[in-house]
Amino acid sequence: MASRDPDDEFREIKREIIEARGLIIKTNNITAALSADVKSIARRQASYERRITVNSATAYVLFVVVIFGGIKLWLDASIRENRAELRTLQRQEEQSRRELAAANREKEERTQLDARAQSFYELLRDGRKQEAVEAWEQLRRERLSPAEMAMFQDQIDHFRIDLSMAAYQRGLEHARMARFAEAHEAFEESVRLKEDAGHIAFVRIAQADALRHLGRQREALVILQGVADGADREAADDALLKMTQCLVDLQQYGDARNTLRQLLRRFPYGSVANEARLSLAQLSSPNFAPRR
Question: pTM (2 decimals)?
Answer without folding.
Answer: 0.59
